[in-house]
Amino acid sequence: GEWSDWTACSKECGGGERKHVRSVKRPPGPGGEPCGPTTESQPCNEAACVDCSVGEWSGWSPCDKTCGDGVRIRTLQSSPRTSLGAKNVQNSNKKNHAS
Hints:
By secondary structure, this protein is mainly β. Helix content is 0%, strand content 34%. It contains no helices and five strands. The strands form two sheets. A three-stranded antiparallel β-sheet has the order 3-4-5, with no helix packed on it. A two-stranded antiparallel ribbon has the order 1-2.
């Protein structure tokens, strides 16, 4: 029979597998040649998964108020060198309530 389309890869990165199959239309008779494999697989998405690289926190911003409760902010920068399926860290902010 005809081969089916390849399945989606089992992993998005780090080495997965995809397969396709075919059905036997008629099994061999006595003394006939065997049909051969009905399933094939191959590797896919072999690139390594790469997690995000996190940098340093920035310094605190000036307070947004001169008296009373104010807010200072600092930012954590990330370098998202990610592949599909890898962990991704977004830029983060920390707030410090000053009085």
